Amino acid sequence: MIETVKGIKHTDSGQFFLLAGPCAIEGERMALEIAEEILRVCDKLKIPYVFKGSYRKANRSRIDSFAGIGDEKALKILRKVHETFGVPTVTDIHSAPEAGMAAEYVDILQIPAFLCRQTDIVVAAARTGKVVNIKKGQFVAPESMIYAINKVRDSGNDKVMITDRGTMFGYRDLIVDYRGIPDMQQFGVPVVLDITHSLQQPNQSSGVTGGRPQLIETIARAGVAVGVDGFFLETHPDPANAKSDGANMLKLDLLEPMLTRLAALRSVVRSF
């Protein structure tokens, strides 16, 4: 299905595909610089690539947390990334009316994990005809995601994929259950593993989400081993000063060595 996304390259390489970019669109220059570097690495490794960026962050712990630079401004930057580099783009939506608006600018509409059961949002995204990426809720069993998939299919759209981002384990931790990857692949859709949000540590007393980015490659290697179709990750040149989710993002200069190792591991796994 990923090969149907307009502008995507290297779909015959046998590699996993990648949805990657900053957590939030902070500005045009920042978005273009990140996109250019990720594209360079993905072209080198023949990895199909989609640029990710949130035009607005609706799910914030505190009311004073950064939420965005303005919807239209950020969406226009996503379009600029596509026009500049020819790469497809993905962004998340937070209500049914946003589906049509965002679909004018991006190629893939993403349903956030907390909203994966919201029928009106899922259906609205499906009816745009765009690819729909539904993040598995931290509270949802993998086998239950068939119902979210069917909401898209029953709306006349078969372009759907699922992203696992861990399951809540206590109040401030997430655990990836790798049994869920093959379970969800049985539904006939690509299954993506979010290797940065899976390492979040939400609900901190400070109101700022924590994370364990030193384990990003560990999570990813296990994903390759079980045959995940794609990866989702957030990256930034300076995570410590990122305006959103800096605590669990991958530093941009670590991306190439990590993807190089993961691509090599993928080739080994595919040989079995």
UniProtKB/TrEMBL annotation:
Main localization (coarse): cytoplasm
Keywords: Cytoplasm, Transferase
Pfam family, one: DAHP_synth_1
EC number: 2.5.1.55
Localization annotation: Cytoplasm
Residues of the DAHP synthetase I/KDSA domain: 7-259
Catalytic activity reported: D-arabinose 5-phosphate + phosphoenolpyruvate + H2O = 3-deoxy-alpha-D-manno-2-octulosonate-8-phosphate + phosphate
SUPFAM superfamilies: Aldolase
Matches recorded under Gene3D superfamilies: Aldolase class I
Pathway linked to the protein: Carbohydrate biosynthesis; 3-deoxy-D-manno-octulosonate biosynthesis; 3-deoxy-D-manno-octulosonate from D-ribulose 5-phosphate: step 2/3; Bacterial outer membrane biogenesis; lipopolysaccharide biosynthesis
The protein, known as: 3-deoxy-8-phosphooctulonate synthase
Species classification: Bacteria, Pseudomonadati, Bacteroidota, Bacteroidia, Marinilabiliales
